[in-house]
DNA sequence: GATGAATGAGATTTCATTCAT
DNA sequence: GATGAATGAAATCTCATTCAT
């Protein structure tokens, strides 16, 4: 139905309106969810007549699906290129994790849309992608395998579990932001705090919490 | 209000209705969220006249808050008693984690309500508890500190970060269930799979992914 | 969905409201058709909140179908009993035709609803009855056959064609009322004019179907 | 309006567009009626910009009236010339009826527009013609009178009633097509079936209006 | 003359809430 | 305490019409 396959960046007035609607909708859906969002609100935010939303997207639900599609595409841009084959697996993990962590840090919209979708049991997202595996789609799986092969990472790892765990360690910081903020005096989104969380994750992933005596 | 008998045991018919509403509401709110749930639906599920919901709870939103309160209380039951002071810190962590993990496994309602609440930025939950920190409320903090003190856990750990990470590792398995299920052939909620995830978490938490040569 | 199978004449307040809606809708749909009618208008005419229409009938379209069902049922009341087996076939025809003609004369609502339905190609009526054959449903078919068997009516008649023709001769007077009124000075619905049309039809029909002995 | 060339032959592009709109509108109005038709649909069918409809016809309603005018004109083409003064009145009736019947058979659009109009109580058609009496406008009235005068048709006929009846006998076959089709195995619009209905009508009409000599 | 985009008014439908009993 | 019926407000969606080019 929609031809906005990649980025909505064609032109002509209509494309621009269509895009304005999509961006406004993405913002509002991400903040309030499908049920909480109001079409009137989206129209106002897009500075366009409500009628146009139906003209371009057919229904509120379909607009939501298009918003998902648009956001899910962001993952593709992110995913590839983190794995540098010759490189130290540890370095590869660091790179991929940093990239993913900061991607989430910078795109709250994405984080929230994915979360709504999880609560909706993938009802709408499944119309867009057979399955969105976030990180799994990226190179991280290959990186881990490479590390195992090269004897750097433990050979008994279940890569799927590790991917899921890494995913969780990054995401939780953003999805629970309001709830954990009171635990720290600084703003969770400040550069320092972000970097500090990332370092914790890397440390955690590599070493766990045990003190490893080496001799 | 005027002449109702005030029996010492007040669990009369009215209390039972009130409870039926709460349980039905908890189920439906957990599945659809505040905005997605319908008062009619709740009344039907509670097998009660819609009017009673307003009689007992005043409004849909307030009913939702009561559902949150009821669920958040479950945490208290869970939290205390995991920390056995003299015990090996590793053993204490294992016990607390297992307890928490299976608590989440057995209470999807809780998991989902907490997740909706996170997306709602704690708007309603904050009416109930100043902050719900799930695990943090439990003994795990103390256990970790005890482990550090006793030289078993690394001294440079930021306990808050660790608590958050452990929380994430457990929760993600349930909140993303539908999305990750395709990665495994077995049912994610089967005993085997649950135990296997728990072991992964324990292993991950204790050791991370690196191969630690010991000599 | 609806339990108003026969006549809507149960009781209790809700049944009464439901009936009021149905009657108001029948009136307005018959005057303006499905597309021309407004739900607001029906609600106002039924002196009820619009919401109730959806509560009882689900949708405008479904309400229309129920109106059709209610009206089509009138035919059954009418249809049976015109055929008196031993009687002169001519007498039987006279009786059945008079009955049908005056039924149409007295129920403009029915006439118009059936006509809208015809223009809609039976789209909605077919949900109610597999086929509404108006007169054909009545005894007239039997009466004609009886007349043929007894040598009063011409043996080469195609009863289906005759039924259709009779149907047309009666109905046209009411469906084209506004258009033909200018041809006569009196009111088409006056007793005199009605009787005069009926006599014309009977005369027309008899001299058409009668076997004319020539000697 | 200011400087447009006023060619003697004005059938330029504009006239052609105007006509295309009219034809598309006639088709759609005839199928769905005034209320059921959509301006968008008409524009799409005419392969023209919607704006042009307003440019040429001012409003949807006015376009409908023009469609009626265009269709009602067809009657004039049909009407005259059926009456051959010297001819046998029976022959004249046969000719006129056949002509009318097949005119209706071939122009469903006309049949349906006239029927919508009847249900609309001539609201729009009356803007076009003070009264449209279909057949009455034709020679049939004269033919009947001629037949009476010459002692072929019964002298007590009310010509208006007969005209109305003949009108009905022809029209009903087309207006109720979908509803009566199930009564016959063949397609109602097949040559055989059409001819068979026409013969029925002629037979029906003649044996009704003919003076039956008994010796 | 022609077009694509846009709109305001109003249609149908939904929903939390309250009335009358 | 409990119920069935009802409602006002607001949501989604539709449509004839007009603007800007």
From TrEMBL, chains A, B, C, D:
* Gene3D superfamilies linked: Tetracycline Repressor, domain 2 (1.10.357.10)
Does Amino-acid biosynthesis show up as a keyword for this record?
no
Q: What organism, scientifically named, is this protein from?
A: Desulfotomaculum nigrificans (strain DSM 14880 / VKM B-2319 / CO-1-SRB)
Offer one example of a GO biological process linked to this entry: regulation of DNA-templated transcription
| Keyword DNA-binding in annotation | yes
What UniProt keywords apply to this chain's record, in alphabetical order?
DNA-binding
Q: Which PROSITE patterns match?
A: HTH_TETR_2
- Domain HTH tetR-type residue range list: 15-75
Recall the GO molecular function terms of this protein's record: DNA binding
Q: Which Pfam families match?
A: TetR_C_29, TetR_N
Segments of the chain annotated as binding DNA: 38-57
State the name under which the record lists this protein: Transcriptional regulator, TetR family
Extract the InterPro entries matched here: Homeodomain-like_sf, HTH-type_TetR-like_transc_reg, HTH_TetR, NicS_C, Tet_transcr_reg_TetR-rel_C_sf
């Amino acid at each position: 139905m929609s031809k906005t396959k990649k980025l909505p960046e064609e032109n002509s007035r209509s494309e621009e309106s269509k895009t304005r609607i999509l961006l406004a909708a993405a913002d509002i859906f991400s903040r309030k969810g499908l049920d909480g969002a109001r079409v009137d609100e989206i129209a106002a935010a897009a500075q366009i007549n409500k009628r146009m939303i139906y003209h371009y997207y057919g229904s509120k639900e379909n607009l939501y699906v298009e918003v998902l599609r648009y956001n899910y595409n962001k993952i593709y841009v992110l995913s590839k290129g983190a794995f540098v084959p010759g490189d130290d697996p540890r370095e590869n993990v660091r790179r991929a994790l940093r990239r993913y962590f900061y991607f989430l840090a910078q795109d709250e919209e994405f984080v929230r849309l994915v979360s709504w979708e999880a609560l909706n049991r993938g009802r709408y997202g499944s119309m867009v992608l057979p399955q969105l595996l976030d990180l799994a789609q990226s190179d991280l799986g290959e990186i881990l395998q490479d590390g195992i092969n090269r004897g750097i990472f433990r050979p008994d790892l279940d890569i799927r579990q590790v991917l899921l765990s890494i995913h969780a360690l990054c995401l939780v910081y953003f999805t629970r932001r309001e709830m954990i903020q009171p635990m720290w005096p600084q703003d969770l989104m400040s550069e320092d705090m972000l970097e500090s969380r990332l370092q914790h994750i890397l440390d955690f992933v590599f070493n766990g919490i045990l003190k490893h005596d080496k001799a």
